[in-house]
Amino acid sequence: MASVSISVEAGVQTLTLNRPEKLNAFTSEMHKELRRALEQALDEPGIGAVLLTGAGRGFCAGQDLSERNVAPGAAPTDLSVSLGSYYNPLVRRMRELPKPIVCAVNGVAAGAGANIALACDIVLAARSASFVQSFARLGLVPDSGGTYFLPRLVGTARAMGLALLAEPLPAEQAERWGLIWKVFDDESLMPEATALARKLAAGPTKGFGLIKRALYSGYSLDAQLDLERDLQREAGFSDAYRKAVAEFLEKRK
Ligand code: LHQ
Q1: Which of 8, 32, 34, 227 is most enclosed, with most CB atoms within 10 A?
Q2: By alpha-carbon position, which residue is closest to atom 1 of ligand 1?
Q3: Would strands 130-132 and 169-170 be described as parallel, antiparallel, or unpaired?
Q4: Ligand 1 pocket residue status of 64, Cβ below 6 Å
């Protein structure tokens, strides 16, 4: 079964992260499927907007940590490979896509899952959703553009609190802080997100692409993604990281 389900209707390509039993945590397979889907969105003139959401009760729990477990005594994993091969190209593709991407955050968005949501152009969330920069719990640095998006969206004080404390930020507070565009009651999220994406799909695609270029230009996202990749490499070699992943997988506190 595909880990991303894809449908195209009324000019909107809907991408649903589809590993609900693992809160749609990212695997390399999911990255490959998303990459192919976004290439299709780029090439297909009939697609005017993309809508990204998650199946089940979560939006995305970040990297699937079962792909990251390190056996005792084994050499540490170089996390920069995963960022360089998957996450950073995904964020770049999303920001450079000359068509709007709407995100419907249907439930918890954690780690890279939170920052992939923030990489979208318009972020909507269900009232019950939350955003967690869970990296610090693993001894890691917010990645997938988190260190770039957070201070710009909410200011350095709040960005630092979110990154260091790794506590869930409820959707309503995320809206009040300007982290996201709008919150809807849970049952209204998908109808509202679909209507918004359809409206954008019917709009001036060329102009929207130019708006994205203008609003995102002059920013050093590219350099920041490279920095995150290098810092995460260092963090991933730490004992704290290795222990935290093993503890999560063994469900120890
Ligand atoms: C999971 C996960 C998960 C596997 C829930 N993996 N199974 C990128 C690349 C390179 C290097 C490193 O970093 C990165 C970026 C990252 O994203 S690092 C951050 C990775 N993500 C996290 O640390 C979040 C881990 N998950 C959680 O803290 C919780 O699951 C949250 C707070 C998201 C939700 O908590 P609950 O609502 O209590 O759900 P749960 O914990 O019971 O999860 C449900 C199931 O999903 C459970 O499986 P099970 O078989 O017991 O039902 C979890 O083990 C599984 N799951 N996240 N990331």
Answers
A1: 34
A2: 22
A3: antiparallel
A4: yes
